[in-house]
Amino acid sequence: MSDLFQDLSSRARDLNAALTVFDKTDTLLTTNEKQRTLYPFIDFSRTVTFRDIVWECVKHKKFRLDAIYSNPDRWISYAEDARRFHRFWQSFTLHSDGRVIQITYEKLSDTDGWWYQMRRDVTGSVQDGFRCDFDSLISLNSNGALTPPNRPAFVVRLLDALPYPAALLTPRCQVIDGNDAFISIMSRGDGPAVVGGRLCIPDAPTEQAELAKRAAGFFRRRVRTPITLRVSRLDQPTPYFATLSEPPARNAGNDGPMNGILLLTLVDPDVLPTVSPRTVAELLQITGSEAEIALALCSGRSVDEIAEDRGVERRTVYNQVSSILGKTGLRNQAGIVRQVTMLCWHFGSRL
């Protein structure tokens, strides 16, 4: 296996990445100097497991996401599950010192369950890396990285002009491009992720299947209205809202049409700009009470939760939702969420 270790070390050196190789019991087999430099508080001279390394990072407050510290064992199990279900898996982690670390796991072929992890600091070039070189830590088990589709120059301007997290996808969910707000959500690691260059929901197989189905069938539908999906979040009661739609520009001038490319927008209800029920009521031509219902749906509340909060029967809330749909011409609750979200971004207060 010396040739394998040498090949991995060479790749890590070329990428200025930290390297660790583990056996099937998650016990460390080898590491490189970059890994020791990044994590000087870990004694790599003794027998160390994957869990040992993560726990030491928790103890030394290396992660920015507070939820990790409230239930670190769950986060470790999440990483272990992702590795079991994917031969090749890639994500971003936001560290407490502001660094963005790109992490790659891969199972090694022709070994007894061995796998490696590479960690690379991409803080200074995360946007360029996302757009131009996302699969730079290519799989050892393939011939090379996926070739991203050609992208018109106007796409960059389009995404950067949007105030909310947005990305462009192929119908197979391969990420072509994403703005800074989208990358920020990916770095949280609490819901959607990019695995092998594709958007997925590793911790929710049912939602993952629905996302893949909706994206693959989007352009086969007779009416291509936007689709909004709920994406569960680890340790958070409110979901993300993911909307698939066509890009607003159907033609990029001399660069050609944007056929077969999806615009994905992601919304975190917890950080939406606030807008008053009165504003929503006036803009959508609905009553004040209906506007409050619409805003509650946009915050991730279910009909049952809204009914409980307001002290009314769930049928009352359903009737108000039906009234909103009738007055606005929207098709379903997802449409209400999508519409009110846009109102929040364009008319809400960001203070």
From TrEMBL:
Residues 283-340 form the HTH luxR-type domain. InterPro entries: Sig_transdc_resp-reg_C-effctor, Tscrpt_reg_LuxR_C, WH-like_DNA-bd_sf. This is Helix-turn-helix transcriptional regulator.
